[in-house]
Records
---
Amino acid sequence: MSNPTHNENTSSIEAVNRCVNKRISTRIAQVPLASFIFNASGPRCTEEDELNLLGASASAAIMTKSCTLEPREGNAEPRYQALPLGSIQSMGLHNLGYKAYLEMLPRLKQAISPQADKPIVVSVSGFSLADNLTMVKAFQASCADLIEVNFSCPNIEGKAQVGYDFEQTERALEQLCQLGSKPIGLKLPPYFDFSHFITMANIIKKFPVSFITCINSVGNTLVIDPETESAIIKPKGGFGGLCGDYIKPIGLANVRAFSQLLPSSIDIIGVGGIKTGTDAFEYLLAGASAVQVATCFEKEGIECFDRIAKELDSIMAAKQYSSIAAAKGKLKMI
Ligand code: SIN
């Protein structure tokens, strides 16, 4: 189940080669990516067969589901509902536990074509600083290429999002950034006030954080079905993370604000409502070095990466941008 066959490996090379295009290749923390687009730590990246499928796809990286110390079944069902312009979810960090991903990484790495610049990004989401220290230390000694620490899951009952607690974030970074030389990034919640952008940027600047990922879902939203007079997901009394088109303007604003506040050495990965090349291009103009796709990947499946990459490439060609660097952050003001 977990190891791709020869045919799958061949299609992996083809899929990745289709995307090896100088115009949309990029780097995160100096790690090369063949395209601007990969999966978010979200849907379809928990199991080994799902991660192998990403390895064989045009996703520019293999991003794992956020892991915890112990395996988790996640929240009660129904915990995901598609909406006309996105989704609401409260998955509850269903994952195999960090040891399973540690053990899986060499197999995933081996299955990736040597010609493909396809890094593996592991996502960790501990319930305490001690959990995160244990997991980051272990992944620092693994063959993962990048480590994303998730400070923004809104879906665990009784656990606040670390990214909204600035003191806790600073205390955590003091220790998490000392554990090894692999690039560390932070997945942040959406911020809605300039004082918060500035406070978080000033904390990040104190530490060797290599990248940030903006934004996680907009947490604790409520969708009601008037027919049944009920919330449409079960966990947390119906409160869940809003995803998809609804949140793209918030994602763009967060990428833009942080790109203005942080040094250009800290890469920003945009997430939130990316389902077309145009969406990806808007994030590029706002200052993103790459984008991650979640809801669209859930709805459309693995083909979305190739499609969005081709659409972005066409837009850039038509606008005569020859590289990601040429368009990055070039948002015009009126
Ligand atoms: C979840 O598993 O609940 C979503 C993960 C996240 O929001 O970080």
---
Amino acid sequence: MKKVNLAVVGATGMVGRTFLKVLEERQLPIENFYVMASSRSAGSTLTFNGKDYVVEELNEHSFDKPIDIALFSAGGSTSAKYAPIAAAHGCVVIDNSSQWRMDPEVPLIVPEVNPEDINWHKNIIANPNCSTIQAMVALKPLDDKFKIKRVVYSTYQAVSGAGVAGWKDLEDGLKGVEPKKFPHPIANNCLPHIDVFLDNGYTKEEEKMINETRKILHRPDLKVTATTVRVPVFDSHSESINIEFEKPFEMAEIFETLKNAPGVVLEDDPQNNVYPLAIHAAGHDEVYVGRIRRDESVENGVNIWVVADNIRKGAATNAVQIAQVLIEKMQ
Ligand code: A2P
């Protein structure tokens, strides 16, 4: 198998470190490996596959050397500036920020859902929002069979989605320390506020879920609404998803479709208290689906509960899966 030169940008961050872990686990064929971050951590070392790598400061010349694939998770402004530089040098960027996701020239990929869109990339590929990724893995097979008419998302999102600072706010908050990252204490609290507020009263996180769902499912007119909430959980996002379909269905067909869906693990045995839980999903790459029941208030509706590790499937794993598809295409 052809080996690639691969760089991780933002390697010292929450998602960056998980990139390294998932790359190791999946044994990607890597020739030369580079880790990059800001001047703050340049010179420190990170271990990958048993070897120490010195963190390089990201700059205009970082991509002068031959790099085939770069996994970026260093914030939107870093991606805005450096992804085009990398792309111009022939490197394919897989970007975890929201910077390029809605750009019509940039494919937005969940490998189980729309791998065919990778084919039209122009050296930048966007990794969707964490909450969107896990929803797509569950919704795509249902959309294919019963055609979704409307989706209502309500999320229960872990603090790790807000990076190291979010994690620390919960840790500190449990000891009574005031928050630094969030506008209110997150310990013993739920914040209906993720990312900034927009003029229409939605948050940017909610808008991301709505727009990204339409782009990934190729359903530009799909009716979608969302309420995104930060909860005092360290790892894994949980989502209540209410779905209305165009076509009628039997509940057995819904169960069967989700049971056979790539990337989905069905956990639905309420009589025995079995349903997806954040503490069980943490550390895994699958999307867990349960609490599946008919919505009796509409003609063709269901409710489902979807849980996944937001740092793994919601970020690092999804990006590494995209890299795996790219590498397969290079062979
Ligand atoms: P650094 O550790 O040097 O600050 P998180 O969101 O988990 O806090 O991680 C953010 C990641 O993005 C870190 O690796 C951080 O590096 C990196 N980063 C932030 N700003 C820049 C920048 N201007 N250039 C390169 N990397 C950056």
